[in-house]
Amino acid sequence: MLPKRKSTFTGFHQNARIYPGGIAMKTIGFIGLGTMGKPMAGNLLKKGYSVTVYNRTAGKADELVALGAASASSAAEAARGSDVVITMLSKDDVVLETVFGEQGIALGLHPGQTVIDCSTVSPETSRRLYQEFATHLVDFLDAPVTGSKPAAEGGTLVFMVGGQEETLDAQRDVFEAMGSKIVYMGPSGAGSYTKLAHNTMVGINALALMEGLSIAAKAGLAADQFLEVVQAGSAYSKQAELKGPKILKRDFSNQFSVQWMLKDLLLASEAAEQFHMPAPMLHNATDIFRMAQERGLGELDLSAVVQCYEDWMHLQIGQAETPLHPGEPQLLAERRRNTRLQMNIGLHLSVYQWEQEGSFSGQLIEGTLVDLSESGMRILSSFPLAKDMFIVIHFPQEAGLPPVTARIIRIDPDHGQFLYGCLLSGLPPHVRLKIEEYIRIKSE
């Protein structure tokens, strides 16, 4: 644990506004005016703070300047004239570059200032910044938020804060201008750990909503009525409240994007590995958000991941599960179930034979994945195998897939080779989804 250090805040900057009664308002440098940062800075202005803003894309500051903010030409300039510097940036390397890079925050700091990082970054990055700033008598808090865009606009964000509690107490007025709840979590890095654990639950809850909606859709249930039950029952969650209506309206405008949720889940996965703890739901959620990113949904709201589920079940949420042509329901339903993804991917197959009691012999043979359907795979090989034999399928290393066990249920001769129909055995749903996504990418 890092040693406690008294807050170094010694007074207000010379540019601080003086209000009736001789009360001085802190000057704020706000850096990062994206989906969250822009409304947060706007709320500081509304509460009467003198705010200087900086963003790498200068045009994002125009609306705030019209509201009374000053515009800085660099992060260093925004920091130089401020009592408190707030950053709301995308990821670790961007935060570090903004602090230590050319014309970065570090060049504009002076003793007595406080830097508050509201970005979601690794705890290691937060602790590094705390230690670096401490050598310059500058206080630092890692204070990521939850609440997404609507809460940022309404000033109802929840802050989870790590660092010296005395520093938080000295800056509580600044936090209260942007949020409705401020929770002190512990020493430097504790805020970042809290955010990663929190967003693990957010990602999993969002996918639980999408899977429930998908099951309801395949059963022919009305999506709006199903969502009404969810919001009134034990399955209720904030994600159901926020994302359910967006899914039904096909409104994937960004409140919190797929790419940033994936970034947070990857950071959480790193933390779980450091703790040597299993986190199966976290890893499955990470896989699905990665698929959505690879599908091109990265800049959309995380609710857009439902499009992956819709692809997998060949049905859009909110649409009835009905045949395209009256009179052919069974035929079309069967065709939909047996839609095959065509491909030509090289595989290796482990084949085991029973030798005698208590022993097997095995060998590795080559094969080609011909196609994949919901019921299994078809694999082409020149090696003769027997019906009902179990094989282990090894995908190319680039796929990042585990070995898959299958049973041969059909054998068809094919120009001197054998086309094996294989039934997949005990395949976890997330592995099937990864296989389908890998094949989709390879087939494009």
Automatic annotation (TrEMBL):
Domain PilZ: 334-439
Domain 6-phosphogluconate dehydrogenase NADP-binding stretches: 27-186
Coiled-coil stretches noted in the UniProt entry, renumbered to this chain: none
Domain of life of the native organism: Bacteria
Domain 3-hydroxyisobutyrate dehydrogenase-like NAD-binding: 189-308
Family of the protein in this entry: Belongs to the HIBADH-related family.
Descriptive protein name: NAD(P)-binding domain-containing protein
Species of origin: Paenibacillus filicis
